[in-house]
């Protein structure tokens, strides 16, 4: 290795050592107890059971490793909240995606994605450093960018999952609403109709109805369970559906006609969305036609004439 490559390697190792030292110092300063923490043990009653024997909630498949890196994960999670969605907003997104994991579990997953991105960037940086002798500063920036991209990919996948699930719910809503209307018309109560539809239907909306019925069985009122259903899904059609059921339960108004009207509205909205998507695709299809197919057609039409003119000359 040349002297420049040795210097680059030395600078890279020194930067890594300095970063590790700064992290250790920052962690030691963060662990410094404040006055309230020093006084708190003398103001509360302690349990006779050892804290080491208390069950610790496991958020990842690697329990022992999680207990070692849990403080780091909490700090990284708070750093993510500064630059990304808050804890409550992230919990709502996880509920909209239909995931059963907690915010801490998602943060751990995001940290893993970021670590994979950092490892990938570090591998590319080492490869570029050995092959071309690139500068250390751009390589260090490449590693950081890869780590950030890894965390953003995790968030992007969650957004895609939320969008796909909402599309499935909108596709299932008209059928579920008409089944509820048939059950109510046949003499079922709103709760009985929901239970019958839950046993019959399958899909994301049926799972949400099952969650609402579970809340009703646990003592929550039907109106409150429907409000929670609308808050979890956060779709206008489902919100109107929950409001219609709530009004029917509270005032005793006819429910079958309302459900049929809501199903028809959702179908019309889906038809309009399909027409808008078709219009956008038609406009996008004009790009290859104008810039690829049309020039080739003109060339095939003009080329024989040009050859004939050249032969005549």
UniProtKB/TrEMBL annotation:
The chain crosses the membrane at residues 6-28, 111-131, 137-158, 284-307. Keywords: Cell membrane, Membrane, Transmembrane, Transmembrane helix. The keyword Kinase does not apply. Residues 178-302 form the Type II secretion system protein GspF domain. It is found in: Cell membrane. Its main location: membrane. It comes from the Bacteria. InterPro entries: T2SS_GspF_dom. The keyword Cytoplasm does not apply. It is a multi-pass membrane protein. This is Pilus assembly protein TadB.
């Amino acid at each position: 290795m040349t002297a420049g490559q040795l210097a680059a390697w030395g600078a890279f190792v020194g930067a890594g050592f300095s970063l590790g030292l700064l992290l250790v110092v920052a962690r030691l300063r963060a662990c410094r107890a404040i006055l309230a923490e020093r006084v708190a043990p003398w103001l509360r009653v302690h349990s006779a059971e050892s804290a080491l024997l208390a069950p610790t909630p496991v958020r990842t498949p690697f329990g022992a490793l999680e207990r070692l890196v849990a403080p780091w994960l909490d700090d990284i999670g708070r750093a993510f909240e500064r630059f990304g969605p808050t804890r409550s907003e992230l919990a709502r997104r996880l509920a909209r995606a239909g995931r059963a994991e907690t915010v801490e579990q998602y943060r751990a997953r995001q940290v893993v994605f970021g670590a994979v991105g950092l490892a990938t960037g570090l591998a590319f940086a080492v490869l570029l450093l050995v092959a071309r002798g690139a500068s250390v500063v751009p390589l260090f920036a490449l590693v950081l960018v890869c780590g950030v991209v890894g965390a953003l990919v995790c968030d992007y996948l969650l957004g895609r999952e939320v969008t796909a699930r909402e599309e499935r719910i909108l596709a299932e809503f008209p059928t579920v609403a008409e089944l509820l209307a048939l059950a109510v018309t046949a003499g079922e109560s709103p709760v009985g109709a929901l239970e019958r539809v839950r046993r019959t239907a399958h899909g994301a909306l049926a799972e949400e109805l099952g969650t609402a019925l579970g809340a009703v069985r646990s003592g929550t009122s039907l109106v409150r369970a429907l409000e929670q259903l609308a808050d979890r899904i956060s779709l206008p059609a489902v919100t109107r559906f929950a409001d219609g059921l709530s009004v029917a339960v509270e005032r005793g108004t006819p429910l079958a006609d309302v459900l049929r009207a809501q199903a028809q509205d959702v179908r019309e909205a889906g038809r309009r969305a399909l027409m808008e998507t078709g219009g956008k695709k038609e406009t996008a299809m004009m790009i290859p036609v104008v810039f690829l197919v049309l020039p080739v057609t003109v060339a095939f039409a003009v080329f024989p004439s040009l050859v004939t003119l050249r032969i005549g000359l």
